[in-house]
Amino acid sequence: MVSIKDIARIADVSVSTVSRIINNKKGVNLEKQARVLQAIKSTGYVPNKAARDMVMKRTFTVALIIPDTFNIFQRQLFSNIEHHLQKFGYRTVFYFVAMGPDGEDDCFQRVKSERTDGIIMLQEIQLHAFYEYLESNKIPCVITTFEKDEWTSTSIHVSEEEAAHAAVNHLIQLGHRRISLICGKRYSFSLERKRGYRNALEYAGLKYDENLVVYVDSYSVLSGGEGMRELMKRNTPFTAVFAVTDELAIGAMRELKDHGISVPQDVSIVGFDDIEISSFTIPRLTTIRQPLGEMAQTSVAMIHSLITSENHLNVNIAMPSQLIIRESTSTLNGNAQDGT
Amino acid sequence: MVSIKDIARIADVSVSTVSRIINNKKGVNLEKQARVLQAIKSTGYVPNKAARDMVMKRTFTVALIIPDTFNIFQRQLFSNIEHHLQKFGYRTVFYFVAMGPDGEDDCFQRVKSERTDGIIMLQEIQLHAFYEYLESNKIPCVITTFEKDEWTSTSIHVSEEEAAHAAVNHLIQLGHRRISLICGKRYSFSLERKRGYRNALEYAGLKYDENLVVYVDSYSVLSGGEGMRELMKRNTPFTAVFAVTDELAIGAMRELKDHGISVPQDVSIVGFDDIEISSFTIPRLTTIRQPLGEMAQTSVAMIHSLITSENHLNVNIAMPSQLIIRESTSTLNGNAQDGT
DNA sequence: CTGAAAGCGCTTACAG
DNA sequence: CTGAAAGCGCTTACAG
Asked: B82 burial class (0-12, 13-18, 19+ CB within 10 angstroms)?
């Protein structure tokens, strides 16, 4: 494996000047520069990243922390972030963290051992020591898709509660009164979306009914089906449902279809996230669009600023979400069924 | 940032013995061991990966090369691979490569600079120098989801052509004679699936008709819709379609629906890959299942073996695929329309 | 069993 | 403008 010494030898200069040329420092003899460039070209030499990282105490990479069970929205988001990061010259390393203390600990070990320049978190981690570490070592960190109250950091997110409120209110405006909720207990986004659901109900003078809410284990299409099945078993009539993610909504629609219940004629349904596939389902899904591209772009702009600037001013950015009305919701009319 | 020297000082031993303890070498005084373990615990010390990588000339990570436009199947696959890699103690670093020479070159620079222990390729790269580099530096590499003829390496894949043949033959068995193809020109898998389509037709004594095949730019749901739109413009009647990926098929189904054409009553459709969502579409999609889990597992088993063993025996593994019949295909009956 | 020393491949003051 | 030297944080022979 060719090293900087080889280049120095071939070009008949010192390693210092090779290093200078590689790093575009000004003031090198043009003739020598030509010689080393030639040597680099002929050998295909590329500096060893590990060596450079060690001495510079910078890695030019940022870590992206995400749940190993990432859903489609998160996937679209991290693709986007990776792309922007690359434009800024950063590499991205993904830390997929498994549920529970062990997963978090693995992640923590990696941040300590790999020393990335910064961190973007798409998932909450509980481990207290983690935040202490970031703080005491002044490691730039931006949180995206949620906020963390106990920890001041810059975060980029949508007003989950408000957005969910808008989704449910859409259903209420259409005349629905018995609105089910499919949600989960993990991750703050679900809790907040549930709160938005509840608020919208109360705001409209509707009673919150535990029988109309079902909790599922994950936010996948499969869970959406399970949630709907559970709901239908309960014999509590409903004419609309708010699913806390699009995937859940898609699974729920599938299950309804299997029971001969039509969307939106019999039951209206609204999701959350506006993932790609949601404009292609049959029927197309009404949902809340998160400004994915903007969130990604802002996240990397912020992490870059945090990495390169002296004063770490933390900001909390709430981005606007938008209700996208498509085909899965309609007015409650006379022949709407009970969904049972 | 605490280093090995700090631990040595705190525990009052040499850095050598700290290193020995960290790396679980046998034969260290138990009392000293206790002291350094205590020091490590109290300081939260974790070895610097960059330093270790440099001196050991190993990184304990494998690179996963994938197209930056990865589709859902590829996403499921790389998630799976990452997971298995982790079980073997490897880290995964993703190289998303953009289409074209620049993208490939970036990727090549990264493999040269980051020196991963091995490489798993989910995407073909053309650059000749790349393979020369791998070869001359004896860098283990496994290719998954395709084969590369000019380059002997271990590869894991499905018999694309055969599988496509089976998909189209299913349509033929159902009585279809005018079968469209939605495919692309990029990536070998599409070419091979097209070949399977053609073979199946000829095998059944059916004529291959260019008017029935449409080429799309990507393998996304969006492109599926575009392909179908194009097909319908041509006024060439068809009663069935084979889409080279599930996403294409899903997009095509959506487009048909918009034109009031029912699947499978009017037109039958079969996809390829069996991505998760395909069991939840309306109607559920008939498709070819690739043994995703097995492919992932085998890929990492092979790369691990290549990394750890002396003799690099290359193997070419063809895994079985399976036709999954669901709701999007049915027999051609009297009232089937022409699809125009 | 254990420490001092050399070395991995770089970058960066420091002289000249 | 440029080279010799020190040093980054590790591991691994090599003595003892």
From this structure: buried
Nearest nucleotide to the CA of B54, by C1', is C8
Mutate to test the interface with A, among B6, B49, B127 (most CBs of A within 10 A): B49
The residue type found at B83 is: H
C-alpha B205/C-alpha B183 separation (Å) is 22
Q: What is the pLDDT of residues A207-266, one digit of tens each?
A: 999 999 999 999 999 999 999 999 999 989 999 999 999 999 999 999 999 999 999 999
CA distance A282 to A253: 9
Structure tokens at B195: 């070949």
Report all structural domains of chain B as residue ranges with CATH numbers, in order of start: 4-47 (1.10.260.40), 59-159+292-321 (3.40.50.2300), 160-289 (3.40.50.2300)
pLDDT digits (tens, 9 = 90+) for A151-163: 888 999 999 999 9
Q: Which residue lies nearest D5, CA-to-C1' measured?
A: A16
Q: Do B94 and A92 touch (CB under 8 A)?
A: yes
Among candidate residues A70, A71, A122, A68, the one with its CA nearest the CA of residue A251: A71
**How many residues appear in chain A?**
340
Task: Please classify residue A158 by burial: count the beta carbons closer than 10 Å to its beta carbon, then call 0-12 exposed, 13-18 middle and 19+ buried.
Answer: buried
Nearest to B324 by CA among B266, B267, B281, B265: B281
